[in-house]
Amino acid sequence: MSAPIIQVKGLSKQYHIGIREKANRTFREALTDAFTAPVRNLRNLRRLTRFEDDSPDIIWALRDVSFDVHPGEVVGIIGRNGAGKSTLLKVLTRITEPTSGEIKLYGRVASLLEVGTGFHPELTGRENIYLNGTILGMRKHEIDRKFDEIVDFSEIEKFLDTPVKRYSSGMYVRLAFAVAAHLEPEILLVDEVLAVGDAAFQRKCIGKMGDVAREGRTVLFVSHNMHAIKNLCTKSVLLDQGLVTYSGPVAEAVEKYLQNVSPDLSGDTVAQFIRSLPKDNVFRYCGISLTQDDVPVHQVDNSKPLHITVDYEVMQKTRGLRIYFDLCDIEGTLLFRSFNDENEDSIPLVEPGRYRSTAIIPGDFLSPITYQIIVRATIFNVRTFEPKAGIILKIGVERLGRANKAYFSEPLRGKISPSIDWVTTRRND
Predict the structure, then answer these.
(1) Domain containing 23: what range?
(2) pLDDT per position as a tens digit, 269-328
(3) Nearest to 242 by CA among 105, 75, 100
(4) Which among 300, 355, 295 has a CA at the least distance from the CA of 327?
(5) pLDDT at residue number 260
(6) Co-location of 302 and 227 in the same domain
(7) What is the SS3 assignment for 256?
(8) Residue 275 and residue 113: Cα distance in Å, rounded?
(9) Are 327 and 373 contacting, i.e. CB atoms less than 8 angstroms apart?
(10) pTM of the predicted model as reported, rounded to 2 decimal places
């Protein structure tokens, strides 16, 4: 294997709440700092060694972060909000100084960390292409050569001679990404800028980043879009509260990340969650269960039907009250939705009383992956009765069904794997 193009060893970054970075301090703050520095430096040295968190004015954005990136790798940096992802990229691009640790970058670096970085609001889009390109390390003849490609990619030719202060955030990110994507650096650092802009342009940006990766350049990509991470990246680094909790294959990193961010309700946890819901004078949950052969399950045998049962009470006569569930993969992609009243000819009027609604997912239907079953109760076009996210139950599925038994080493393809009956006959004509 080739030598690393990025080496990060023992990287830590500490912030003091209420204290500015040195470059932005006033004279008064600098003078005060000079008198208090000896005591504070001794205290900080102890904290640096022990990573203490007991002081309310200290935040460790990064703690002893170490990893290597090799040429041509596309590495996804993932984690919850506040995990330290953006801080890591800012330290790598030397926008922020580390508190401790070592960074080695072997090659020309380009970064796209914030929408509109390097843009002057009074200048036009055309002028800002040259300004932004220069800031990101391009020479004028390089920008001239790439200019038409940049404009074509950004799709803002109509507004090219308009001051960018009149641009929307989506137009900003189109132009900024177009410039950064057409550089030719060895290392490209991209923060979560693709959250801005329409879906079509986001797909276009992801496609361009794929092209950059195939050209052999090295990319560090921060994103909450797990589809993009899985499609683009060759490995991933998972951060949690400034610590690297996993570094390795993308699929495993995404699985660990989603396990942390998705509530995992089962058994008594479901009952506790239901009891925590606000009281309602129309509807209340009494219980939710997942069963196979009348036994509660968390790990599902895909050869058997899975029963999703919702017990509830209706306190007032209500038209259009319905129970439904979404079956999603672990990334939250909706696979299908099913309502308890979807076979009704008209919107039903539900009388007060206690009810049980059970949905049955047939055997030989689910693939051997992890799913989310999201349960909701709603009055049609009026309101729901639980938090916006719904009540999320996670299940793992074991492959025990009849599909592919003759070729068991071959993986099942797709997020669902229905067992389809085929008929094959021998013809003599």
Answers:
(1) 6-257
(2) 788 888 888 888 999 999 999 999 998 888 888 889 999 999 999 999 999 999 999 999
(3) 100
(4) 300
(5) 67
(6) no
(7) helix
(8) 43
(9) yes
(10) 0.59
